[in-house]
Design goal:
Largest sheet: none
Shape: rod-shaped
Helix content: over 70%
Number of strands: 0
Structural class: mainly alpha
Number of helices: 4
Amino acid sequence: MNMNPFTDMPIFVKKEIELLNERLAPAMRVASRYSLFSFPLVVFSIMNIIIVLFTMPTDENTWITLLIYSILGAVGMALSKESKIRRKAIEKKSVDYMIQRINESKTATEQMKKRYIIMINEKPVMALAQFMEFLHEEQRRSSF
């Protein structure tokens, strides 16, 4: 039994989610790439710094090696931070799209629009679920 709500969505909801994904896809690809490269860089540099510090004899090349691994780790941390910043921007863009779509609704009442906008703004983590609920209610109203 398939319990994935995204595969069991009605067509009108799928269409809206696809429109949202089209707007977010480029930014999501970039954020995913940053995440993908940041973790291995940080782990690689930390492991090598530990190896250099505790297993290799200290000479003039040791400091250069530590500096290189430290820079790689810093780049990894910067990519991780940038990924988080971009994900927050994606969340904001997503919420903005949902609010714009709700405001453009012809069948929803002003009270209904305000209620869903407040819910989306108060809990952005639950925004997609609230938006899908709005779409269902909008569809129900338009079929009357």
